[in-house]
Design brief:
two-stranded antiparallel sheet; 5 helices; about 140 residues; mainly alpha
Length: about 140
């Protein structure tokens, strides 16, 4: 099938499919006219890629895991190398979530402080000079 058909059947646009191919996640044969030709297994492969991307895995992680993927969801066998890669990604996500939680708390503090000062203008301006007036 051509890239347009694969796109239609998977709901993934052609640009993304070409990206998956460039990342080594998807394979296509080239016809004499230069068009990509995908076999039927490409539909399942794209669905696997989408699920794994949805789990927060990078294309590099997926390239490593994909040869072991089984089924659309996909299922991944619990071999040590795969578990190590997935645990590593999970730790990176946990670290990102911690940094985001810290950033959110700091921003919430700024919002709270600004709301407490609502109606006050800082720095105070003298209307005639329109320059800050020393406190």
């Amino acid at each position: 099938m051509r890239i347009g058909e694969l796109s239609r059947r998977t709901g993934v646009n052609a640009h993304q499919l070409r990206y998956y191919e460039a990342q080594g996640l998807l394979e296509a044969d080239r016809r004499a006219n230069g068009y990509r030709a995908y076999d039927e297994s490409a539909v399942l492969r794209v669905r696997q890629i989408r699920h794994l991307l949805g789990a927060g895995l990078s294309s590099e992680d997926i390239a490593y895991l994909l040869p072991c993927a089984v089924g659309e969801a996909p299922q991944l066998p619990g071999c040590p190398e795969l578990l190590s890669a997935m645990r590593s990604r999970l730790q990176r996500l946990d670290d990102q979530m911690e940094r985001l939680a810290q950033s959110r708390a700091a921003l919430a503090d700024y919002v709270d402080a600004a709301e407490r000062m609502a109606g006050e203008s800082y720095p105070p301006f003298d209307d005639a000079r329109e320059e800050p007036v020393p406190a």
